[in-house]
Write a structure and sequence with these properties.
CATH class: Alpha Beta
CATH topology: minor pseudopilin epsh fold
Number of helices: 1
Strand order of the largest sheet: 3-2-1-6-5
Number of strands: 10
CATH architecture: 3-Layer(bab) Sandwich
Number of domains: 1
Order of helices and strands: HEEEEEEEEEE
Distance between the termini: 73 Å
Largest sheet: 5 strands, antiparallel
CATH superfamily: minor pseudopilin epsh domain
Shape: elongated
Radius of gyration: 23 Å
Amino acid sequence: MKSDQGFTLVEKLILVALSGVFAAIAAPAWLGFMRAIEIDRAADRLHWQLQKAKSEAKRDKATWETLIRQSPEGIQYSVHHDDAPPIWQTMPFRNAEIDLKNTTFFFDNKKKAYRMQFNWLGVTNGRLGRITVMHKQSKLKRCVIVSTLLGSMRTGKEKGGKCD
């Protein structure tokens, strides 16, 4: 008695080949999606740290600052009172780095980091700018922009070679 159930070897090979073709088509798009998510999260983390410094300054009625630097371990940041020493924290996003050409935050040579300060009113110290992060492999860019003296902040994406 012969059974007609199941798939033949040729049918299984065709299925494996088609799966490989679909995976080859989808893999670059998936990698691009994952890179965009990682760089978005890095920019969001920096935006949150700047908001935290502004909030703490208003709460304590004192000057607070956010320091951001590139280290061999990745992007590091510290949010602290301007008289206190920085306590560096490393971002968990290993493929994100600071885009030095497009970052316009004040660079504090003494602290070797980009700095944004907020006074007791939550207002910047007179300096505006942007911190731009990019993905190491794809050069995808995102930025956090402090756009007014009142400390308005927003995130932006790269458009036409510029992050706005």
